User: What shape does this take?
Amino acid sequence: MILETFKHAVMITAFVLAMMLIIEFINVQTRGKWITPLKNKGWLQILFAAFLGATPGCLGVYTAVSLYSHRIFGFAALVTALIATSGDEAFIMLGTIPEQALLLFAIIFGISIVVGAILYFIFKNKNFMKENEDNLEIHDEHIECVQPRKSIVQNLREISFQRAILLVSIILFLVGLLSGQFGHSHEIIPISEVNTEVSDIFSHDHSHDHSHDHNHDHGHESTPNLSHDHSSHSGGFHWDWISGTYLFVSLIALFIIASVSDHFLEEHLWGHIIKKHFLKIFLWTLGALLIIHFLNGYINMEEWVKANLITIMLVAALIGIIPQSGPHYIFILLFMQGIIPFSILLTNSIVQDGHGAIPLLAESKRSFIYAKIINLLIGLIVGALGLYFGF
Assistant: This one.
């Protein structure tokens, strides 16, 4: 089961990086064309900020923080973006619980607009940055840096080390995906199936720690499910819309890697996505999966969590304050297994913003604190209502 956990971590990491690559490509293509109409139109700021926040990853929030630091966005728009975002965890949710992810994104998108409108009514275009806190730059990117100056054939003939590594990596991932090695993983399944298949994975090893008779009973129950799982994946690519999404995103990433200029590849894909995000995302994902793997072997997490839902909600909200992607993965994985309800995942998603707010913390600590206090209150209110109404 450790090998399956490792494969799951690889698959999630590959999807996250591929999506980040695509969004980076689109972001550089379109940068600088949409700022002018925003300055004096509060309603447009709120809508655009919600859209930026809803964009998977942290690029949208980085953009919102940049606009706020340049006094193009007011505080209301900033909070709107921070509520609407789920950071890099959005990629994880899209790759593992896509239907629930889209529902969650829609809910926090709506909440962000409502909260943003209320804040705009109170503060108008107020900006809490000090006069000298206006130094975060928006770098204008040259669109030609992402447009291929050479053909794909020329890029391959004069291939750089970075392009070779990225191409080999994505091709190996595609081979693993199509051969079933990285296919419809035990843990990457619709939430309706989580309680049966995932519980088999995490309880299988634990069953061997009991007495011989008890072990025999559990082993007999879990083995058929596991063997069925392997047989269903060993024959090749398992077609469903989740695996199809992985394949589609990977093929787009392959095309981008093969076609973009050396400048874009080295500066944006290699220098930004791979060097800054790859190891962190992989280690946090693998670590969270392993923690759940071993905890489920020693305690009944589902019963414990259900007996302490308010405590878990408070923990989810407080961890959401951390301006870093990674610690929040645990709540996605717990939700995948049916251990925590949707409302607790929603609470964490409202409060957290990945590492998108780190530039804000660096540029204006007062704005960061005010925004986090509001996000925390909204997250706790929504979470408490969710627990009260039983969702």
